[in-house]
Specification:
Layout lengths: L12 H11 L1 H9 L8 H17 L5 H19 L4 H11 L13 H11 L1
Helix pairs in contact: 3-4
């Protein structure tokens, strides 16, 4: 005598979960087949969280120009972080040197170039 498996009703929570999974089966099986694929996107979400928070802050910046300046500072700070530059040291140094820096050499003060050119100047 064969044993009959219980039926799952399509509209039940379990049935809906199975249907959801079946529609995304290719992506789910890619994770199982390729070990280098992350199971979640927490790393990406954590990386963009400060930008999302900043975006909300831009709404209360006071003016369009203030929002643009705030966005520029967020961009500079993110570039510092990406390049392993201490944000406070970079900003202090840039504010001290920018007045006397030649216009054509301002690229040297950008966070991604700062360490290289700072060592030559110090």
């Amino acid at each position: 005598m064969s044993e009959q498996l219980p039926l799952v009703m399509p509209k039940s929570p379990l049935g809906q979960a199975i249907a959801y999974s079946l529609q995304r089966w290719e992506g789910l099986s890619a994770y199982a087949l390729h070990g280098q694929i992350e199971i979640d996107n927490n790393l990406a979400e954590n990386a963009i969280r400060p930008l999302a928070i900043g975006r909300k802050a831009f709404l209360f910046a006071g003016s369009h120009q203030a929002a643009e300046m705030t966005a520029a500072m967020y961009s500079f700070m993110a570039t510092c972080k990406k390049n392993g530059v201490n944000e406070q040291q970079w900003l202090t140094d840039v504010l001290e040197r920018i007045q006397s820096h030649k216009h054509k050499d301002l690229y040297q003060l950008l966070p991604n170039n700062w360490s290289k050119y700072r060592k030559q100047d110090v």
